[in-house]
């Protein structure tokens, strides 16, 4: 199996929270989920976010410390609470979210130390939700000025976005990670006739200075586009437990491989496998080791598709 360990650093900016699932509360938020899986894959990772000065915030800090993630850049807010999100799992394992506003991560402050941190980091990952409020958005935009490689994990959540917000962030990114529905929605803001994936991708490349577009497609796998070529990769078949955080784990695995300059086929294979592995378990951040992931991949390549760890 590939060794994804790297001496490089990745920074994740935005929301950290408690996902309130039918099975109980679990730590979540796309930036935290990505950071969790990057850390599992041996990547030095920093989270920049904010929690309330409350019990929920203390428990989040305990969780992060317990898994070895740095909490140095997790700010504390005396005015706004730690975020909790009610997640509902519906038919076809689709998840909907009730996201309270405002909360602590809506008020992430700029810190002078971020300039040097960003200057030495391999990538900055951010989304649209974490910048729904002007205060955190202004912090993010300042960070983007110093970032070396900017990864926009769009993560559209109703009603916490506007076309204007997403458009602004698309003007400041190198790689966009998006699901198929989000790609269609965004492209039609600019041209309502845009219905085919290749046309939507071409439109975004023409309109923005994006270098790469990464599209997740659930059971249909994923596609990676650059301005010169495209590459499709099929999904790994699994028994789905839930889809919470599967896209976040996919992105983490993709970036972990990209940092070590692996071939695009190997990179997509690893990313798709990670997404399937997390989908076969409950919650966005299940306990696992890299050995568990590698064994899962080996079993799939051997045709053992029961979706269970052994």
Which CATH class applies here?
Answer: Alpha Beta
Mean pLDDT: 91
Instruction: Quote the beta fraction.
Output: 15-25%
Q: How many β strands by DSSP?
A: 13
Number of domains: 1
Walk across the major sheet and give the strand order: 5-4-1-8-9-10-11-12-13
- DSSP helix count? 10
The portion of residues assigned to helices is 25-40%
Radius of gyration over all CA atoms, rounded: 18 Å
Name of the CATH homologous superfamily: Ribokinase
> Which term fits the overall shape?
globular
* H-E order: EEEHEHEEEHEHEHEHHEEEHHH
Low-confidence stretches: 306-310
CA distance, first residue to last residue: 17 Å
CATH level-3 fold name: UDP-N-acetylmuramoyl-L-alanine:D-glutamate ligase
CATH architectural category: 3-Layer(aba) Sandwich
Biggest β-sheet description: 9 strands, mixed
Look at the helices and sheets and give the structural class: alpha/beta
